[in-house]
Amino acid sequence: MAGRIEDYALIGDMQTAALVCRDGTADWLCLPRFDSQAAFAGLLGTEEHGFWRIGPAHPSGAAPPHADRRRYRGDSLVLESEWDTPRGTVRIIDFMPPRDGAPQLIRIVEGVTGRVPMRSALRMRFSYGRVVPWVHKVGDRTVAVAGPDSVWLDTTADTFGMDLTTYSDFTVSPGERVAFTISWQPSHREAPALPDPEGALEATEDFWREWVSHCTYHGPYRDAVVRSLITLKALTYAPTGGIVAAPTTSLPEEIGGVRNWDYRYTWLRDAAITLSSLLRTGYREEARAWREWLLRAVAGDPENLQIMYGIAGERELGEAELPWLPGYENSLPVRVGNGAAGQLQLDVYGEVTEALHLAHMTGLARNDYASLLQLRLIGYLEDHWTEPDEGIWEVRGPRRHFVHSKVMAWVAVDRTIKLIESGDVDGPLERWRELRDDIHRDVCEKGYDKERNTFTQYYGSKELDASLLLIPQMGFLPPDDKRVIGTIEAIQRELSTEDGFVLRYPTAGHEAGVDGLEGDEGAFLACSFWLADDLAMIGRVEEARQLFEKLLGLRNDLGLLAEEWDSRLQRQVGNFPQAFSHVPLIDTALRLTASTAFGG
């Protein structure tokens, strides 16, 4: 049985990632890319669907013991887990070296005290747990082959096969190290090179140490910010610069519910706000790579702009269900692909334009095509901003005139006007100034409830939506505007959980609500960070700081956050770890640090 979502650690090589539980089990790994079919899918099923456990030997039928301690080695993605057993203490070092050839997952077992009996159990299952591979020996190496995939196991420990699983039983003494490596290779290719686990460990630590050294943030929340930055880097697909929203699919937003989606793709919205955080903390190369990814993915075609793409810019992300997987804690269906790729979400134009504007303002090397794309995006919005859409939350109900979508359309026009005013490009300045005023007037007239002094989820609605918290952050209205303050207070009052975190919008329980789905969901962590930002902006800095530090307390012991927090069950829910949670963590830390510096 899979662990709680917060029981997992992330390791990765910036092309794919594995999740390792506290008991030493790797329950999730897609090879060779984030969006490839999983070779370990136990996270969404049972051990029959693939896993790799290394840990102290334990009685048959008993649950494997959890590590007594675990941590990342300094500011890196190298995981250390330690078990104290009656026979001594043992350490396991898990990591995936930045790729130079075949993708590898390396696990080094190190004796600390005493003599500790250990067991490795490796059960490869390709195609999300559906395909049992042919496992055989090639010299001293073990290889699992099925269709286009092969995974090679290399270790100095003796191995044996039983129950369609590869085992190794061994004992470690103080200072003794036993390494295990699996390497993926297309099955038609020759065997991958023999691994060098110790050399790879040193190179991996050096890589992360050097990368973190470029961080320009040195405020009071540095540890949390750096861990979030490392997580965002781990979610970046190095060959293209695309950033996945999360490395997982179908981790539920409600345990046992149907809100289970595939997040192993690049959302323009998520990636754009990620670019903002990277630029503000000194990571210009990652920001440049993302801009180049964007230009390739959109390819000058704003009329067919998608809200998300594959990590190399793929457009076809057809959604399907995997009926052989029982789902995480019986949360069905398990989905791969994402049908929301074909939705109209007008806010994306604003997020992309804001990201390009920020890149321009921070001195990222000019790209004329990026400026041309920005102009074409506004040309499209000029004709389409009055249309209803599916909005930021990708509702699967009817299209509506979502207020946040209109606000972000205003942002897109406003930032493009600023680009033209800077003299770097030419455009119909007066016409677009009128357009900006028209959108602003439309939102304030149709999206604002005068009686309650709050903006609403969509035109004509009485409901609230946490995306309205972005109104002052985007500069649509100043923070001290009574309508802004009224909206913040209404969201605090009506969309907060008992423990003070923020829901995206009201859900309908057993009925199909505005999003077209049954069931409920947890508090959305990004929205909770947005509330902290807004509180700081309207001068309630201490209240903002308290909420922020409460949010930091929701992270697991390794500093990682999923998409949501279930206040009833007191546990993380949704795909994990989630870029859209770690980015606003960074942004709020920066804002609070600045507020403190200026006496806020």
Automatic annotation (TrEMBL):
Q: In which pathway does it act?
A: Glycan degradation; trehalose degradation; D-glucose from alpha,alpha-trehalose: step 1/1
SUPFAM superfamilies xrefs? Six-hairpin glycosidases
One annotated GO biological process: trehalose catabolic process
Keyword Hydrolase on this protein?
yes
Give the Gene3D superfamilies listed for this entry: 1.50.10.10
Q: Which cofactor does it need?
A: phosphate
Q: Quote the Pfam families the UniProt record gives.
A: Glyco_hydro_15, TREH_N
Q: Organism's domain of life?
A: Bacteria
Q: Where is the GH15-like domain?
A: 219-589
Domain Trehalase-like N-terminal spans what residues? 2-141
Q: Which UniProt keywords apply?
A: Carbohydrate metabolism, Glycosidase, Hydrolase
Identify its protein family. Answer: Belongs to the glycosyl hydrolase 15 family.
- Give the protein name, as stated in the record: Trehalase
Q: Name one GO molecular function term.
A: alpha,alpha-trehalase activity
- EC number(s): the record gives 3.2.1.28
- Which chemical reaction does it catalyze? alpha,alpha-trehalose + H2O = alpha-D-glucose + beta-D-glucose
